[in-house]
Amino acid sequence: MPRRRCSLFYLLALLSVANIALALTAWESIHQTIHTYPLAIDSKDFALLSKVFTPDATANYTGDLSNLNGLPAIQTGLAASVATVYSQHLLGTTVIDIHSDRIDANSTTYFQASLFGNPYSIGSVVYLYGFYADTLEKGVEGWRISRRQLVFQGPGFVGNLSLVGG
């Protein structure tokens, strides 16, 4: 069987197709940003939040976490909110609306969070239900949340409220 010679052009075309296949769409990139959030909170790796929020982001989680302005305030506030508990945040339905300018987007993401006492014992858990309403911006480092509003659904907090100061 004769051996085929590959031209440089052919090899570059193959590399280009491979890179296109690996590139994420805007929707996938936004989804990845949003879904990095629970990994940061539950692992208590608050530096990872720099992959989620813009440096000047604002967040309103209600109560003591109502007016968080800037990434450092968000990191500090969220760290304090889970300092005495273990947590598991589950994100569900996510709807993403990418604006026509392709550099701004809005999203709504449903969540359920469980906060477990540290140390855990029977009955030392509180559950939270709601959604995040986010505004995102595309920057040099990718899509980041510039504004987050937590909206509780149903009863909000359910369970042993003493875990969250209730």
Report on this structure.
With 166 residues, the protein is of the alpha+beta class. 25% of the residues lie in helices and 43% in strands. It has a single domain (25-164), classed as Nuclear Transport Factor 2, Chain: A (Roll). It is built from four helices and six strands, in the order H-H-H-E-E-H-E-E-E-E. Strands 2-1-6-5-4-3 form a six-stranded mixed beta sheet. It starts with 7 loop residues before the first helix and ends in a 7-residue tail after the last strand. InterPro entries: NTF2-like_dom_sf, SnoaL-like. It comes from Imshaugia aleurites. Residues 24-148 form the SnoaL-like domain.
Helix percentage: 25-40%
| Gyration radius from CA atoms, angstroms | 21 Å
* Alpha-beta content class: alpha+beta
Sheet-strand content, in percent, reads: 35-45%
CATH top level label: Alpha Beta
Order of helices and strands: HHHEEHEEEE
Instruction: Please give the number of β-strands.
Output: 6
Span of the ends, CA to CA: 78 Å
Supply the number of structural domains.
1
Average residue pLDDT? 88
Stretches where pLDDT falls below 50 for ≥5 residues?
Answer: none
Spatial order of the strands in the main sheet? 2-1-6-5-4-3
Number of helices: 4
CATH architecture assignment name:
Roll
Q: Give the overall shape, derived from the CA principal axes.
A: elongated
Sheet of most strands: 6 strands, mixed
CATH topology value: Nuclear Transport Factor 2, Chain: A
Pfam family, one: SnoaL_4
Protein name: SnoaL-like domain-containing protein
Domain SnoaL-like: 24-148
Organism: Imshaugia aleurites
